[in-house]
Write a structure and sequence with these properties.
This protein has about 290 residues and is α/β, with parallel strands linked by helices. It is about 35% helix and about 25% strand.
């Protein structure tokens, strides 16, 4: 299977990037991220006085001979950090109807970030939440996982109003979780599930996709139609436009605040922006402490 042409630019743009975990990870397999375990990595981090129960193999015997005091050599071990993507494929992600810019951005972000994680040796998997059922990509480190992810994303057309929160229950704990969605569905339930992971030393990223036409509806728009329920229509005169803009701005601010309080790295993404720049910003953001 060859790489679809649409992903060529994003894959070229992220080549050479790394994506450090936001905090130390708990994996036992050697990888690229700082581990919570400290032991026998070759790079010396610090010394401390020997304590009962320390591994005698970590004693610095030369220092013991010089000082007659026993010191243990500590080093920062490194581990893999499995990365899972939860991608929203509800009907509202097909907005605007002419370009489906939100869905195009979601696909580009998932593939770009997955490529960085996979090249660092991290297992990459995905759950694409679609109307016909969640499409899963099994987590693997092999390069062909990117092709499988591209194929899975290409097999889905945004439709319906599937719930994303249940998908999190099927994913492993303490993996890096990347939620790519417009958060117009079961946002509160999704946030509760993600918050439980973040409180358990998890690494949660939320990429909240909005469209330019949602931020500033076209002046010629006279009728607003709910993308997930076309039967819901509302006149969109000047008064309705003003009320919508105020409510939408307030909702975005409240949503951003709630996700950050839940421990997630939250970022609003405009669908028409350059996906490569967003992927770079996510991957190079300063990691959290701990």
């Amino acid at each position: 299977m060859s790489i679809p042409r649409e992903y060529g630019p994003i894959l070229d743009a992220v080549r050479g990037l790394t994506w450090p975990a936001r905090r130390r990870v708990g994996g036992t397999h050697t990888g690229a991220h700082l581990s919570r375990l400290r032991g026998r990595a070759p790079e010396l981090s610090e010394y401390r006085l020997y304590r009962q129960g320390d591994d005698p193999r970590q004693l610095d015997w030369k220092l013991l001979a010089r000082s007659d005091r026993a010191f243990t050599r500590l080093s920062d071990d490194r581990a893999v950090h499995p990365t899972w993507f939860v991608v929203d494929a509800s009907a509202s992600m097909a907005f605007p109807a002419g370009t489906q810019a939100k869905w195009a951005m979601a696909r580009a972000l998932a593939v770009g970030l997955a490529a960085i994680a996979q090249r660092s040796g991290d297992p990459v998997g995905a759950a694409i939440v679609a109307a016909g059922g969640t499409v899963h990509v099994r987590a693997r480190t092999r390069a062909d996982v990117l092709l499988e992810l591209m194929s899975a994303l290409g097999s889905v057309a945004p439709a319906g109003a599937p719930e994303a929160a249940p998908a999190l229950l099927q994913l492993p704990d303490r993996a890096r979780l990347v939620i790519i969605a417009d958060l117009l569905g079961d946002e509160a339930a999704l946030r509760r599930q993600a918050a439980a992971r973040a409180s358990d030393e998890g690494d949660v990223h939320v990429l909240h996709i909005v469209s330019r036409d949602e931020l500033a509806p076209p002046a010629a728009l006279a009728l607003a139609v709910d993308p997930e329920d076309p039967a819901i229509e509302r006149p969109f005169d000047a008064a309705a436009r003003g009320a919508y803009l105020a409510r939408f701005a307030e909702w975005r601010d409240e949503t951003a605040r709630a996700w950050r309080l839940a421990g997630a790295a939250y970022r609003q993404v405009q669908a028409e922006d350059d996906a490569a720049l967003i992927v770079r910003a996510v991957a190079t953001a300063a990691p959290a402490r701990g």
